[in-house]
Design brief:
Order of helices and strands: HHHHHHHH
Helix content: 55-70%
Number of domains: 2
Mean pLDDT: 76
Number of strands: 0
Strand content: under 5%
Number of helices: 8
Low-confidence stretches: none
Length: 127
């Protein structure tokens, strides 16, 4: 992350006005076609006009986006680990989930051939 985008150095000594910055920003009108909001809220003019609002926006836009894929993986693990399979080790669950994901994405197309390749690896070469 570019330090200039999240830095408050230019904000030093600037006092926030007593009015509600968000209300003022709504009334004054928004800039159309902002494709890079983090850069927009990091501009000196915007930081000066809306010091608290720009700080909040920079805090918000520096949070990495997360997909729903981790939730999907956890849900499928929940379906896999049922009371009858309660003795599965974390390693076995992890391996099964990886293979399942690779098959879904087309990385592995023939599971039998993959196991044959793994068997062909000398035991001392395996980690």
């Amino acid at each position: 992350m570019d330090a200039a985008l999240t830095s408050d150095e230019e904000d030093g000594g600037i006092r926030a006005p007593e009015t509600d910055e968000y209300s003022r920003w709504c009334v004054e009108g928004r800039v159309p076609d902002v494709y890079h909001p983090l850069e927009f809220w990091s501009k000196a003019r915007i930081k000066h006009s809306y010091p608290r609002l720009s700080r909040m926006a920079r805090d918000l836009f520096t949070i990495p986006a997360m997909s729903d894929e981790p939730e999907r993986v956890f849900s499928s693990c929940d379906n896999m680990v049922i009371p009858q399979r309660g003795n599965l080790s974390a390693e076995v669950i992890e391996e099964a989930q990886c293979v399942k994901n690779w098959m879904r994405r087309g990385i592995i197309t023939n599971l039998g051939a993959t196991f044959e390749l793994v068997k062909a690896i000398p035991e001392e070469a395996q980690i």
